[in-house]
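Ticket #4471: complex job returned nothing on first submit. Input attached below:
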Amino acid sequence: MKNYFSLSGSLLLIMLFVGCHAEPDRLPILGNIEVRGTDTLYHLIPDITLIDQDSQVLKIASLDNKVVLVDFFFTSCPSICPKVKKQMLRLYDRYEHDDRVMMISHTIDQRHDSVTVLNRYAHNLGVNTDKWKFVTGEKDSIYFLADQYFVSVVEDPTAPAGFDHSGRIILMDPHRKVRGYCEGTDPESVTAFFETVDQLLKEEYK
Amino acid sequence: MVVSCTSQPYSQGHAIYTAHCEGCHMEDGSGLADLIPPLDSSRLTLSDPSKLVCLIRKGLPFNTFTGQQMPSNTSMTDVELANLINFLGVEYGLNPQTIKVTEIKKMLAACQSE
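Support reply: We reran it on our side without changes. The output follows.
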């Protein structure tokens, strides 16, 4: 009897311990971390110049004080993009009236997805483009940017419509650091992601 | 819209839907805003099985208002088409009748001659 109690006691302790660890105070900063002397250098999203659906220049560093949700797609994508967009729409609905949140969808098909095509796409998606930008840019810069966001994008003639890419939705903080992501093809992953976004908002705007 | 998991007898049709349609029309057939239409039984043409067969086989021309296109499905067999259409009938109320493979053959012949 005595043994039984002490065993369950230590189990309880272990569970409490695990419980504490499952709830970190701050979201992690993703990517390589380099320590140089007294400085710690984090992975930063480069300040690349993009062009939005209204032909306006968008500099990533000019997204003043915003938490940004990011994805990569192309308008004629027959495979995963519509599903990811459906989930981006859920995020849009949730944060539509929260000015701290912005959204950026990058086309990986610069040849076909002109500014006009992006504009038409945004219009048919029915979203406010002050909040949700649809951008293009130099092909090399966009592919580099995808890589920096930890999204894999490759031109692949055997893939549906010639591109192979992941449907990740990325969360970037106002300091251009990547703080989380979810799988945009999986609604449950996105539901869990709501909490990640909320947590970042709490951290950034105290 | 009828969403029934337990009473759906067309598991093969469901698998075909998942492979060829779900990416655009979504798991629940809800589509995507104005870009991709929902699979909605209120559209008259959809309750006509012969039109549905031709639509799935041939797709639709590029839609210049949305920039989207319903693709053709040229390699789908007659059996697969029948399974898919019967699945759509039960799941989304598109075409309430049950279609046989022999009927699919006739319908396909008719839409090619249009």
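Chain A touches chain B at residues 75-76, 78-80, 82-83, 85-86, 89, 117, 120-121, 124-126 (CB under 8 Å). Closing as resolved unless it happens again.
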